[in-house]
Design goal:
Blueprint (H helix, E strand, L loop, with lengths): L5 H5 L1 H6 L32 H12 L6 E6 L3 H7 L3 E8 L9 E2 L13 E7 L8 H11 E12 L19 H11 L5 E6 L2 H9 L8 H5 L8 E7 L5
Parallel strand pairs: 1-2, 1-4, 2-3, 4-5
Antiparallel strand pairs: 5-7, 6-7
Amino acid sequence: MLPVSVGDLLRSYGRQKRGLRPKVGFVRFGSLRRVMPVSSVWGYDRGKPVDRYYIESFREQHASDIRGRVLELQDNTYTTKFGGSRVTRSDVLCVKDGEPNATIVADLTSAPHLPSDTFDCIIFTQALQFMYDLHAALSTLHRILKPSGVILATVPGITPVDRGDPGVDQYWSFTPEAVGRLFKEAFPGSPLSIEFYGNVLSSISFLEGLACNELRRDELDRNDPRYPVVIAIRAQKLPQA
């Protein structure tokens, strides 16, 4: 029997969609019959990770919100890439002092020193899962936004647990329903949109550490609410009365 490639195996999702499901006992795992992922670094060693494809799609869709004074975590990659000349000031928030990119050092779950009504846009990428006190972090984010300011946030749904940095613990992964409730409580009455990205094929690929370039565009762009890889939120702070 010829070996089955990872791509052939994963694309069996398309055949299943058409009702051509393999019989019990006839599923061929091929390269995936292993107890360790293909890549343990999210697929960075193979190309662009699947979750970054979705995150950048969301950022591009809402690029016009990235303007004025912008706050981003860890570095200003997305501020620069999607904000361009609309950005008048770029700030980078880091939790630990001494980070080379940091212009602000703070723990968002306890940051009374951060001034209120300061930022026109906050880019908040794959960070909420590391904050045990979700409500405190979201309350701070709402407080430091200017009235009418926008937060563009993404959080993980189906994901490997991040064990990358010593002393940094991942506490959560999310569903669209959970994210919706959290942000409605933190941004009461505000315009809010929740989007999800992913399907069973891209979920398997992300868990295995495959890169987005190993899937077709139509395979990446099909979204199934049962298998969210990335959940994205756009929330706007209500203007003051």
